[in-house]
């Protein structure tokens, strides 16, 4: 049971990253690789700040801002320097590895004995692992509510339109470059925030913790979409959160089946490939038809 | 004589500059557009019609020459800035609307064309009744689909919406780029009638590219024929009213 609670807590904390990636991957409609760099950067920033005596709340906010700056760089490379977005993201991701080492001064940093967002008196009075659930729930609720508000503003609508039909957005006078820069920046801010949360939950930060982040974030988006199907924009955000929790539960199941934690990246990728390929397989092999027929014969 | 609102002065657009394939797709074009003009534009493929529109719209910078709107030189003004006075409907219904946004959301965005997009609530609910009235005029059931994502509308409905979006906030200049060409004859006729009505009602200044000689003759007060980057024919007023399809065809055959 405590494993399941832990998985739900992890899912909630990681859903911030899913929501962050949603802004670029689904709304702006391009793959942003920067996230693999901003996730450990957020972790490094928060952990180092805390180690230097900064209040954990401030340290977490600082991580968000640092992520925004990294995203801003990607956005500028993409829109102003006209570097293809995939490459722009990879450039910043690669550069951030060095920056993380500069921030921490070493490849990893422990939070042992230091205060974190999860070490308050109230949180420690909760049953084991409920601290992660509580913090994750509060943060993701605040983030989601702010995003829902934002997407319903004039600016938010211009942002959605940019990803939906750039040509039209421009012909309506929307500065699409600015929308993309803003989107990539906020997206990476959220992913760095997620990195800060995960590091505090895990109790350490490691310069290599970014590997495979984009797959994890995509998994929560795709699982949510495959399960819930057609949704409104606001419902989609919630679907990402649910997808993130389900993904953690699937991983838990996989570990219970006897797989090693080292196998997780392989398993995550296979899972994602299956989920993303599902629509194509479905139409090729008429899966729906076969399933329906199978049910009828029962 | 009505006021001149828009001018092209000796505009040249050269492609493949400094190569053997060098070509002027716009070849020293001079054009004065008067307020309230409804100009139909004919021309074979490669005559320079799209280049003309892209130069007016700001997507292309002329190699030389000037673009002037209301006595102001806008030759180097960006596409986004020009949207404050210019709107456009494309041939492809997919280009003019955002597919994942609803009809009402698209209209609301269009109403803010050329304005600033602030971090303030969009206030969509209060506008629904007005949008219903506006869309009802299109005679194609669009008013019952205000909350539908435009991606699931028919091509005709999408194009009618594109036209509404281009005119919901009165533009100084309206560019119609074969906006009925992708539609079936009946839908196309319906949209063309509404286009004509709207232009008269709002006294819009409009340029319309078409491949239909009949449409070019029937609509508008002025007709241009583009050929090899030049305006080879410019007729307006009473002369245009008298022009027949046969005369136009003869002219076309002469220049080919």
UniProtKB/TrEMBL annotation, chain A:
GO terms for cellular component: plasma membrane. Keywords: Cell membrane, Membrane, Transmembrane, Transmembrane helix. The chain crosses the membrane at residues 12-28, 57-78, 85-105, 129-151, 181-199, 211-228, 237-258, 264-281. It is a multi-pass membrane protein. The keyword Aminoacyl-tRNA synthetase does not apply. GO terms for molecular function: transmembrane transporter activity. InterPro entries: ABC_transp_permease. This is Ribose xylose arabinose galactoside ABC-type transporter permease. Pfam families: BPD_transp_2. It comes from Apilactobacillus kunkeei DSM 12361 = ATCC 700308. It is found in: Cell membrane.
From TrEMBL, chain B:
One of its GO terms (cellular component) is plasma membrane. GO terms for molecular function: ATP binding; ATP hydrolysis activity; transmembrane transporter activity. The keyword Hydrolase does not apply. Keywords: ATP-binding, Nucleotide-binding. Residues 6-253 form the ABC transporter domain. Gene3D superfamilies: P-loop containing nucleotide triphosphate hydrolases (3.40.50.300). Pfam families: ABC_tran (PF00005). This is Phosphonate-transporting ATPase. It comes from Apilactobacillus kunkeei DSM 12361 = ATCC 700308.
